[in-house]
Write a structure and sequence with these properties.
Order of helices and strands: HEEEHEEEEHEEEEEEEE
CATH class of the largest domain: Alpha Beta
Structural class: mainly beta
Number of helices: 3
Strand content: 35-45%
Number of strands: 15
CATH architecture of the largest domain: 2-Layer Sandwich
Length: about 270
């Protein structure tokens, strides 16, 4: 079962889609009168654990004032868990089929995907409470409690899925207590669950252009063939992108002739 390599990038595509939702959040600094904007800053976003950024903040407490790539405010996100979702289980034997765009005689097939819940956490780091509120308020109204994204999971199969991303919880930390040497840190942690599907390997087979059925009077190996039904597309040159019909041919055979399917192919 595991002797064949495949990688559909399903988890990677979902993670990229999750990060894309939050990659254009901005904060603004207004004048003391509030009638003009002094500065507009796009909040940086990166993949990484919360502890990594917390360690960096502790080691460099003046991080929000330094003018280089890592500044405050900023956001980080990461995968925190993967679990099977049996409430969305589908039949195992169903197949998805899609004719290749560069070859009308080759058919790509893939079995029904497996439902999984992917847990994410989004961490928001700011130096002031006002900046944290600006960021959070640009996120929460869009989750009621879910926000749906469309992901092209398997392009060669033309399989696209709407994946709901559910906001589960919002937690808040503000380390304003302590001595004057202790740096204040405002941290929001938002947890999400993405309900996605994971696909197995894609296989190929030739497109069926002729269907033939033989009817017998018994189930013995050497039995009497009564009838043959043949179905072909009309026209025969049609492919999956054409609007075509079918031509059905029915042949009848004498009851006196025994037909052996291992040796006989034509009347």
């Amino acid at each position: 079962m595991f002797n064949r390599y495949f990688y559909n990038s399903g988890l990677r595509k979902l993670t990229v889609a999750f990060g894309t939702i939050f990659n254009n959040i901005q904060i603004q600094k207004s004048s003391s009168t509030g009638d003009s904007t002094l500065q507009s800053v796009r909040v940086p976003l990166a993949y990484g654990p919360k502890e990594k950024f917390m360690t960096r903040l502790d080691q460099q407490p003046n991080l929000e004032n330094r003018e280089f790539a890592i500044v405050l405010p900023r956001m980080s996100f990461e995968i925190t868990g993967i679990s099977y979702d049996n409430t969305r289980k589908l039949t195992r034997v169903q197949k998805f089929r899609h004719v290749r765009s560069n070859s009308s005689s080759i058919l790509n097939t893939n079995y029904t995907p497996v439902p999984y819940n992917i847990n994410y956490s989004l961490n928001i780091f700011t130096a002031t409470a006002e900046n944290g509120l600006q960021i959070v308020e640009q996120i929460l109204p869009f989750f009621q409690p879910d926000y749906t994204v469309t992901i092209n999971l398997i392009p060669e199969m033309n399989i696209k899925r709407d994946v709901p991303i559910i906001l589960n919880n919002v937690s808040y930390e503000d380390s304003y207590t302590g001595d004057y040497a202790t740096r204040r840190a405002v941290i929001y942690t938002l947890t999400f669950t993405a309900k996605t599907y994971l696909f197995g390997p894609t296989t190929t087979q030739k497109v069926i252009k002729t269907s033939q059925s033989d009817l017998f009077t018994d189930t013995d190996t050497a039995s009497t063939r009564e009838q043959r039904i043949t179905v072909v597309p009309d026209p025969t040159s049609a492919d999956a992108n054409d609007d075509f019909g079918f031509t059905t041919t029915i042949e009848f055979f004498s009851n006196s002739r025994n037909y052996n399917p291992t040796t006989d192919t034509d009347e």
